[in-house]
Amino acid sequence: MTLIVRDLRIEDRGDVERFAHVRHLALPYVLWTAEAIRHSLTGTAPAARRRALVAEEDGEVIGTSQVALLHDSPEPGQGYLNVYVHPERLGRGAGTGLVRASEEHLIAHGATKLFSWVLDTPADRAFAERHGYRSGRTAHFLRLDLTAAALPPLQPPPPGVELRTLADFANDPRPLFALDAETTSDEPSDVETELADYEAWLRSTWEHPSLERELSTVAVVDGRPAAFTVAHTDGSTRYASGMTGTARAFRGRGLAKLAKNASLHRARAAGLTEALTGNDSGNGPMLAVNQWFGYEIRATEVRYVRELG
């Protein structure tokens, strides 16, 4: 058997779909579509040095890696590699080959601190630690069955609050960029993030192929976007929260719940059957919101880090 590690051929739809299939088998709590994977490689800033790799054994794609510099962080020299292998093809060297190739790419572009999300299982943890990584913070994948969930009844917005969709901001999404930048900077993380490039945000976020603007909901207070929830779908029956947040000046008023409840009701009415999301384990307020809706934790991952020299 011959194992090779190579770049994903983004112009080859079949190759991208095989990448997505392996990712789905290894991590079914995230939406993986060929269009979204291709967009992640072509729709982000060149400074990210983004790359996708596959491990191929005798013509079969059995492992995947997504690699990039964390160019939105004010601290230089940081990068990430997220490696996932087909669950029935473990122990064949695919993971190790992908880690080595990913690290070489990041180091060649100046990275000295490498991050990787790893599923919280004894085997996955041991694999990361054998490669010199140490464990850090944790995060959870959550799932809600929209066919069975007893969603909270829709409530009229309080005085001064209006619910709109992202589609209502199509002519000028800049206010949403400002809200996204503020809420993203406050998310619990071991990497500080600053969204400062509006044009890059338009390409990577606003033009994301999985974004459903009619399902994404914004709570507007006195004409200003105050809270929002971003909805992605796989074009079939699965819905995922891309981001939910509230501007600092409006927190504690239940606006995120209001926006997300409206989005989930519309998603169910549109025939979507499964809702997915993810939360850092230190983000108690958002975990509480999601569990209030009925989301259940289905898996946990650990952020591992390796510092070089």
Key features?
309 residues, alpha+beta, Aminopeptidase, 12-stranded mixed β-sheet, 8 helices, globular
Would you kindly provide a written description of the structure presented here, covering whatever features stand out?
This protein has eight helices and twelve strands. It has helices at residues 13-26, 34-42, 94-108, 122-130, 174-185, 198-206, 255-269, 284-293, and strands at residues 3-7, 51-57, 60-69, 78-85, 113-119, 134-145, 161-165, 217-221, 224-233, 238-246, 274-280, 296-307. Strands 1-2-3-4-5-12-6-11-10-9-8-7 form a twelve-stranded mixed β-sheet, with helices on both faces. The two termini are 36 Å apart.
Give the overall pLDDT as a whole number.
95
Helical/strand content category: alpha+beta
Name of the top-level CATH class of the largest domain: Alpha Beta
The number of helical elements comes to 8
> What topology, given as strand order, has the largest sheet?
1-2-3-4-5-12-6-11-10-9-8-7
DSSP helix fraction: 25-40%
Low-confidence stretches: none
The CATH topology of the largest domain comes to: Aminopeptidase
Just name the CATH architecture of the largest domain.
Answer: 3-Layer(aba) Sandwich
Distance between the termini: 36 Å
Topology order in helix (H) and strand (E) letters: EHHEEEHEHEEHHEEEHEHE
Quaternary structure classification: single chain
For the record, what is the CATH homologous superfamily label of the largest domain? Gcn5-related N-acetyltransferase (GNAT)
Shape label? globular
